[in-house]
Design brief:
There is one protein chain. The protein has two domains: about 35 residues; about 70 residues, no CATH class. Helices cover about 65% and strands about 0% of the residues. The chain has five helices and no strands. The protein is elongated, with a radius of gyration of 24 Å. The N and C termini lie far apart (about 60 Å). The model has no long low-confidence stretch (mean pLDDT about 80).
């Protein structure tokens, strides 16, 4: 059976571990905040103007990098970029995105696989 001194030592050890754990959690939070050292404004959506497509794609590459999505699966990138395609372009893109997200590659329309095959970053 444990003595009072042994129990006191265990309690002190547990308190010390709790303090150390709290410090580590603070370090983790600080590190997570450092992953995005700069703040960027929200990008303009792509609405279908072909003269703005290249700039939009370049901005999406920056966004994917900023949000840590560069090494994520293409499906994650397609979903992210799809949120910035609106108006006329969105009406064209939505059925393709839905096809991409709901079907296996063998069952998708060719255009869904072609779009998803572009390396966004």
């Amino acid at each position: 059976m444990a003595t009072n001194d042994q129990l006191k030592n265990l309690i002190e050890g547990m308190k010390s571990l709790q303090v150390s754990n709290a410090r580590l959690e603070d370090r983790i939070k600080a590190t997570e905040k450092k992953e995005k050292p700069y703040k960027i404004g929200k990008p303009d959506p792509f609405t279908g103007d072909p003269t703005k497509l290249q700039g939009f794609l370049t901005r999406m590459d920056l966004e994917l990098d900023h949000w840590g999505l560069v090494n994520k699966p293409d499906e994650e990138k397609v979903k992210f970029v799809g949120t910035y395609i609106q108006e006329d372009a969105g009406e064209w893109y939505e059925p393709i995105l839905r096809d991409y997200l709901t079907k296996s590659p063998d069952d998708r329309e060719d255009r869904a696989n072609e779009i998803s095959g572009r390396k966004l970053s």
